[in-house]
Amino acid sequence: MRAPGVIDAAPLFPRLEARLLEVLRSLSPDDWDRPTACSLWSVKDVAAHLLDGGLRRLSAQRDGHLLPPPPGALDSHESLVAWLNEVNAGWVSAARRISPAMLVEMMKVVGRDLSAMLAAADPHAPALFPVAWAGERESAMWMDVAREYTERWLHQQHVRDAVGRQGIQARELYHPVLDAFFRALPHTYRSVDAPEGTAVTVTITGEAGDDWTVRREDGAWRLYVGLPDAPAARVWIDPDAAWRLFTKASRGPDPRAHVRIDGDEALGRRALEMVSVMA
C-alpha cells in the first residue's frame, strides 16, 4: 500500500469541457427538458449550474470577487449546505430565461477561461475554500481543483445519463474523480472504533478502478491506495454504481445492487455511507 498522492486534475479540464460542449451541441429541444439525477433539475438546469460554477470560481479566484455574505451565520454543515442550495437554485431559476444556444456559447468562453486559470494556479498554495466533504478545514489548491473536476465530471455525467449517452469512464478521466471521492473515506469512518491495524478496502472494478484502504492507526483512520494482506472487510463496487452511490444520485438504478462485501459486513457497509459532494 502507499499513501495517496497529489491529484493533478488541472490538465484534464480542456478535454472534459470539450466533451461537455460536444454532447450539449448534439441535444434536441426535448433533450434539454429531460429530468436528471439532480432532483428537480432538467438537463438545461444542470448546464446552467455548470456555467454558474465556472463564473463564480473565475470571479472569486481570478478577480477576487466573492459572493455577497449570507443573511445569517453559517455555523453548521447544514446551514452551509442550505445556503449553497439557495444560491444554486436562484441562478438556475433565472437561467431558464436563457436559450440553450446562448447557454452553450457562454459555457464555451467560461470553460476556456476556467481551464486556463486552473492550469496556472500553484497546486500547493492554500485554496480559497476547504473541501468540507473530505473533512478538511484547510485545503491545498490541488485538492480544491480536484473537487472542481469531480463537480464538472459529475454534472456532465448527469446530462449524459439523462439523454442516454455513454458516460465518461475511461481511466484517464474517471480515475481522478474516484481518487478525489475517496479522500472522504477516513472522514466517513471517523466515529467508528476498531482495534489498531483494522483495515477496510473498497475496490472499484473496471478500467478506471483501484483499491482504496482505510486502516486504523494511532486512534485514527488513515487512507492508502492498495490492498493490505488481510482486510477486515473488502467492498466491491461496480464503476457506474460508484459515482451514483457516493453522490447520492436521486434517479437511476439502485447502486447497492452492484455492491459485494466480504468479511465484516457492518464495517464494510460504513463505506457505502461516504458522501463526496456537499449534501
Q: Summarize this, please?
A:
With 279 residues, the chain is an alpha+beta fold.
List the helices and strands and how they pair.
Layout: H1 13-25, H2 29-32, H3 43-62, H4 77-95, H5 100-120, H6 141-162, H7 171-181, H8 185-188, E1 199-204, E2 211-217, E3 220-225, E4 233-237, H9 239-247, E5 259-263, H10 265-270
Parallel strand pairs: 1-4
Antiparallel strand pairs: 1-2, 2-3, 4-5
**Proportion in β-strands:** 5-15%
String of helices and strands: HHHHHHHHEEEEHEH
CATH topology of the largest domain: Four Helix Bundle (Hemerythrin (Met), subunit A)
Given this structure, which CATH class of the largest domain is correct? Mainly Alpha
Number of helices: 10
* Helix fraction bin: 40-55%
Count of DSSP strands: 5
Structural class: alpha+beta
What is the CATH superfamily label of the largest domain?
dinb family like domain
Low-confidence stretches: none
Protein architecture, described:
The chain is globular, with a radius of gyration of 19 Å. It is an alpha+beta fold and 279 residues long. Helix 6 packs across helix 7. Helix content is 46%, strand content 10%. It has a five-stranded mixed β-sheet with strand order 3-2-1-4-5. It has two domains: 159 residues, Four Helix Bundle (Hemerythrin (Met), subunit A); 91 residues, 2-Layer Sandwich (Nonspecific Lipid-transfer Protein, Chain A). It contains ten helices and five strands, in the order ααααααααββββαβα.
